[in-house]
Amino acid sequence: MILQQEIEKLAREAGKMILDADQGSGGHVKAVTKTGRRDLVTATDLAIQKMLMQKLNDLAAPCSFLCEEDMNLEGIRQIKDREEVEEGVCFIIDPIDGTANFVHGHRHSCTSIAMTVNGETEIGVIYDPYRDELFSARKGDGAYLNGHRLPVFDAGIADVITVFGTAPYDDTTNAPTFRLAHTLYEISADVRRTGSAALDLCWTACGRFGLYAELGLSAWDFAAGKLIAEETGCIVTDIQGNPLTFQDKPSILCGRPTAVKEFQENYEV
């Protein structure tokens, strides 16, 4: 438990960095593009990731890191081949999930940290500094929001709000994404799009949403949130119902068992 508590403290430290940058920006954080106009990075992303890598390495070395931003830090092993996650302890980090929200002052972003051991996620921690909400889970020990255990329950899709993501870095998913959104709108109570995959998973875990779907995510987007959601009884797979892996950029489907079943009965890939 000590290591989990330290990870939670570091997530809160990252959250303070997000708030400090937000409050000092006048509502618009300076960013640069990476692979395209929607793929943004800020100085705060880089500063948070560097802090987390250095402090987690001090806590858990020898370990490796699979992270959104490429860095070359002396004495720290950052991997690019995702198959290497299968070896030993690895931290999968998204310093700011919801960077576009952060840049434009939407105040819906978080830091996501997962710890895997030989490819299995053992600890997941996600912190939303704007709401001061810390979601956490240890495999087999349930999921928690600010220290309160989240319940395990089921719900049908007609009774829940659903949420979808737009895989914004891959324009080939645009048309099928909005077909997906149309299906969700027709069969659920209502539909949302928030801009943070990690928080979509957490909000599904705690029942604010009943089902979340997106057609392309990276490991750092879902590694921690998948464990948190599963520990509340959610089904988490790709959109076809296959197990998720850290390789490539899989689609994702997360929700209450009945909601997932009813979605799959209505959705055509």
Write the layout of secondary structure elements.
Blueprint: H1 2-23, E1 32-33, E2 40-41, H2 43-60, E3 64-67, E4 77-78, E5 89-97, H3 99-103, E6 110-117, E7 120-128, E8 133-138, E9 143-145, E10 148-149, E11 161-164, H4 174-187, E12 190-192, H5 197-205, E13 211-214, H6 219-230, E14 235-237, E15 252-255, H7 257-266
Parallel strand pairs: 3-4, 3-5, 11-12, 11-13
Antiparallel strand pairs: 1-2, 5-6, 6-7, 7-8, 8-9, 9-10, 13-15, 14-15
Helix pairs in contact: 1-2, 5-6
Describe this structure as you would to a colleague.
This protein is α/β, with parallel strands linked by helices. 33% of the residues lie in helices and 24% in strands. The protein is built from seven helices and 15 strands. The strands form three sheets. The chain has an eight-stranded mixed sheet with strand order 4-3-5-6-7-8-9-10, with helices on both faces. The protein has a five-stranded mixed sheet with strand order 12-11-13-15-14, sandwiched between helices. A two-stranded antiparallel sheet has the order 1-2. Helix 1 packs antiparallel against helix 2 (43-60) and helix 5 runs parallel beside helix 6. The longest helix has 22 residues, at 2-23. The protein is globular.
